[in-house]
């Protein structure tokens, strides 16, 4: 009985912990500019201080913000697809084949996952300017790939190791060609793992800030997180808090939708990649 | 079909030197090559470049002034109080946030492990802070702590309504730590939850039958069995916390001496175009991360390869 009360209280605390700040930023995004400028402390918009959807309209009407949404979606999707393809090949080899240098590959991936991102900013800044990749999509896609690869390689090799590869041979014994056996048996078993790796990779790329602000200078390639931090309205001493809150909510919505749709897979991916190996 | 083929790549590798081994070797390398090349091109090469640049006096605004200066940049950094202040800030943030996250994360993991009702809802919600962009969580907390627009001052009983959290060093650091802890505790607790699931139930039952108290079971059965999971969680979070940048950039822009080591490096390179001095800081940052990783692995005395089975 005592444990049950503990669990109920604990669950309530977890829910408040996770959701209260979200509720707050949503509430702020509905406060009117005037109310915020004059100072409106408190959780919910005061009477008459609510702006309805105006902040969201303003955010979507802002050309820089529009462009940054397109940039973020485009850059993150391309980086995710490329990184997952390369990681799938590598993880297949790691889980399935015996070859020399396998440990080295995993060590390199581990080392890169721990790398302080800022360390690369200087040299990349210099290199990208020389190659003309500064402030372009490719200039962000390449660094994103290298940083999401270790994560995908681990997640995927953990998944692939659990696949009963003998089934492929069993299918061949039953008369399937090796390609058929691979496609009919292994691909369906591997697909959920690949998908999970893709979601995590996308999160990772979407969350990036350091590369986003250092390797871009205009809205050409600037992703949402970087755009938000440069989002200062007409009066630099009074940053438009409610407008930024609306922008923050817009940047968060895709993530929340993905979380809601695929929570089981994400948990499995996170923990299998990090704990099971 | 022999058993050797069935467990290909697992426990019975074919004898050395056979055609099969060589073919597998070749295929394996071909498959991992693209991933390894991409990873090295964007990390190893720039890192070597940083190592090289760090030996020069090199400012982008005056490129003609570039000159070889040996280890001067390192000496300047290591004797500068700014460098030590920022490093100290970073270490402080890392120790405080990871310590608190470990405790809260463990409690959350225990709750999630036992919860039956609304399990799905809780597991979904805990992913939300994890998924949220750090910049957004930084803004959220900055606005929450703000004295003219936030709600925290009115909710906290011992704080004056017009208290300015971003007016002083410690209160700013506090706000930054809260934001960091909020965002990353879920990650910690999910890893610990996975570790908790690996604690054998029958061992716990046996300890209970033998009359071990809850506290004894925690220290003697649960925690030792979770050592690998705790180790991985702490290591990952500590290295991640040491890179702290987004939160500070958004919440204080480094004011009130809240700058982190990453922030200092960023400012040198991107804002002041000091590629030489900035590169030296990049190298120092990288070395400190290596040192922390080494110390943690030693401290926990866990073989990483064993914890991760293969790596």
Automatic annotation (TrEMBL), chain A:
<keyword id="KW-0812">Transmembrane</keyword>
<protein>
    <submittedName>
        <fullName>Carbohydrate ABC transporter permease</fullName>
    </submittedName>
</protein>
<dbReference type="InterPro" id="IPR050901">
    <property type="entry name" value="BP-dep_ABC_trans_perm"/>
</dbReference>
<keyword id="KW-1003">Cell membrane</keyword>
<keyword id="KW-1133">Transmembrane helix</keyword>
<keyword id="KW-0813">Transport</keyword>
<feature type="transmembrane region" description="Helical">
    <location>
        <begin position="7"/>
        <end position="26"/>
    </location>
</feature>
<dbReference type="InterPro" id="IPR035906">
    <property type="entry name" value="MetI-like_sf"/>
</dbReference>
<dbReference type="InterPro" id="IPR000515">
    <property type="entry name" value="MetI-like"/>
</dbReference>
<feature type="transmembrane region" description="Helical">
    <location>
        <begin position="181"/>
        <end position="206"/>
    </location>
</feature>
<dbReference type="GO" id="GO:0055085">
    <property type="term" value="P:transmembrane transport"/>
</dbReference>
<comment type="similarity">
    <text>Belongs to the binding-protein-dependent transport system permease family.</text>
</comment>
<feature type="transmembrane region" description="Helical">
    <location>
        <begin position="104"/>
        <end position="125"/>
    </location>
</feature>
<dbReference type="Pfam" id="PF00528">
    <property type="entry name" value="BPD_transp_1"/>
</dbReference>
<keyword id="KW-0472">Membrane</keyword>
<dbReference type="GO" id="GO:0005886">
    <property type="term" value="C:plasma membrane"/>
</dbReference>
<feature type="transmembrane region" description="Helical">
    <location>
        <begin position="241"/>
        <end position="262"/>
    </location>
</feature>
<feature type="domain" description="ABC transmembrane type-1">
    <location>
        <begin position="69"/>
        <end position="262"/>
    </location>
</feature>
<feature type="transmembrane region" description="Helical">
    <location>
        <begin position="137"/>
        <end position="160"/>
    </location>
</feature>
<feature type="transmembrane region" description="Helical">
    <location>
        <begin position="69"/>
        <end position="92"/>
    </location>
</feature>
From TrEMBL, chain B:
<keyword id="KW-0472">Membrane</keyword>
<feature type="region of interest" description="Disordered">
    <location>
        <begin position="1"/>
        <end position="22"/>
    </location>
</feature>
<keyword id="KW-0812">Transmembrane</keyword>
<dbReference type="InterPro" id="IPR035906">
    <property type="entry name" value="MetI-like_sf"/>
</dbReference>
<keyword id="KW-1003">Cell membrane</keyword>
<feature type="transmembrane region" description="Helical">
    <location>
        <begin position="273"/>
        <end position="297"/>
    </location>
</feature>
<keyword id="KW-1133">Transmembrane helix</keyword>
<dbReference type="Pfam" id="PF00528">
    <property type="entry name" value="BPD_transp_1"/>
</dbReference>
<feature type="transmembrane region" description="Helical">
    <location>
        <begin position="91"/>
        <end position="112"/>
    </location>
</feature>
<feature type="transmembrane region" description="Helical">
    <location>
        <begin position="31"/>
        <end position="52"/>
    </location>
</feature>
<feature type="transmembrane region" description="Helical">
    <location>
        <begin position="163"/>
        <end position="182"/>
    </location>
</feature>
<dbReference type="InterPro" id="IPR000515">
    <property type="entry name" value="MetI-like"/>
</dbReference>
<feature type="transmembrane region" description="Helical">
    <location>
        <begin position="124"/>
        <end position="143"/>
    </location>
</feature>
<protein>
    <submittedName>
        <fullName>Sugar ABC transporter permease</fullName>
    </submittedName>
</protein>
<comment type="similarity">
    <text>Belongs to the binding-protein-dependent transport system permease family.</text>
</comment>
<keyword id="KW-0813">Transport</keyword>
<dbReference type="GO" id="GO:0005886">
    <property type="term" value="C:plasma membrane"/>
</dbReference>
<feature type="domain" description="ABC transmembrane type-1">
    <location>
        <begin position="87"/>
        <end position="296"/>
    </location>
</feature>
<feature type="compositionally biased region" description="Polar residues">
    <location>
        <begin position="1"/>
        <end position="10"/>
    </location>
</feature>
<dbReference type="GO" id="GO:0055085">
    <property type="term" value="P:transmembrane transport"/>
</dbReference>
């Amino acid at each position: 009985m005592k444990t049950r009360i503990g669990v109920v209280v604990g669950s309530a605390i977890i829910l408040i912990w996770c959701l209260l700040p979200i509720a707050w930023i949503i509430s702020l995004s509905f406060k009117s500019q005037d109310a915020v400028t004059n100072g409106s402390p408190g959780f919910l918009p005061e009477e008459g201080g609510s702006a309805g959807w105006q902040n969201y309209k303003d955010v979507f009407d802002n050309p820089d913000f529009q462009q940054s949404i397109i940039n973020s979606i485009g850059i993150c999707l391309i980086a995710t697809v490329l990184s997952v393809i390369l990681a799938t090949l590598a993880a297949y080899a790691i889980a399935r084949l015996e070859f020399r240098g396998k440990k080295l590959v995993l060590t390199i991936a581990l080392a890169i996952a721990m790398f302080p991102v800022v360390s690369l900013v200087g040299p990349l800044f210099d290199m990208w300017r020389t190659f003309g990749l500064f402030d372009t999509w490719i200039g962000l896609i390449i660094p994103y790939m290298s940083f999401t690869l270790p994560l995908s390689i681990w997640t995927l090799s953990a998944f692939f190791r659990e696949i009963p590869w003998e089934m492929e041979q069993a299918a061949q014994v039953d008369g399937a060609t090796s390609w058929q056996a691979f496609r009919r048996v292994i691909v369906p078993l591997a697909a959920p793992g690949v998908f999970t790796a893709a979601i995590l990779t996308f999160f990772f790329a979407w969350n990036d800030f350091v590369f986003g602000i250092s390797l871009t200078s205009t809205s050409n390639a600037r992703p949402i997180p970087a755009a938000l931090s440069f989002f200062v309205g007409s009066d630099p001493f009074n940053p438009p808090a409610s407008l930024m809150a609306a922008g923050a909510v817009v940047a968060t919505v895709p993530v929340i939708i993905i979380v809601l749709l695929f929570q089981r897979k994400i948990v499995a991916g996170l923990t299998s990649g990090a704990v099971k190996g | 079909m022999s058993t050797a083929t069935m467990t290909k790549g697992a426990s019975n590798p074919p004898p050395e030197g056979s055609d099969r081994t060589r073919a597998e070797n070749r295929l394996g390398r071909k498959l991992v090559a693209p991933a390894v090349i991409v990873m090295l091109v964007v990390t190893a090469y720039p890192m070597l470049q940083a190592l090289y640049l760090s030996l020069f006096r090199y400012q982008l605004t005056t490129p003609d002034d570039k000159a070889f200066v040996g280890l001067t940049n390192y000496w300047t950094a290591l004797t500068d109080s700014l460098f030590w202040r920022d490093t100290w800030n970073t270490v402080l943030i890392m120790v405080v946030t990871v310590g608190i996250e470990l405790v809260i994360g463990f409690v959350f993991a225990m709750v999630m492990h036992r919860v039956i009702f609304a399990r799905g809802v809780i597991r979904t919600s805990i992913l939300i802070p994890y998924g949220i962009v750090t910049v957004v969580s930084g803004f959220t907390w900055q606005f929450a702590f703000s004295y003219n627009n936030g709600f925290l001052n009115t909710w906290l009983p011992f704080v004056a309504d017009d208290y300015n959290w971003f007016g002083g060093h410690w209160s700013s650091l506090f706000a930054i730590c809260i934001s960091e802890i909020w965002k990353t505790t879920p990650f910690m607790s999910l890893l610990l939850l996975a570790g908790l699931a690996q604690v054998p139930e029958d061992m716990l039952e046996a300890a209970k039958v033998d009359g071990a108290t809850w506290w004894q079971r925690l220290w003697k059965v649960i925690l030792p069995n979770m050592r690998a999971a705790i180790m991985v969680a702490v290591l990952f979070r500590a290295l991640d916390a040491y890179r702290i940048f987004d939160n500070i950039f958004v919440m204080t822009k480094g004011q009130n001496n809240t700058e982190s080591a990453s922030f200092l490096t960023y400012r040198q390179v991107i804002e002041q175009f000091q590629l030489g001095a900035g590169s030296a800081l990049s190298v120092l940052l990288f070395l400190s991360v290596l040192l922390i990783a080494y110390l943690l692995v030693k401290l926990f005395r866990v073989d990483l390869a064993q914890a991760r089975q293969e790596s």
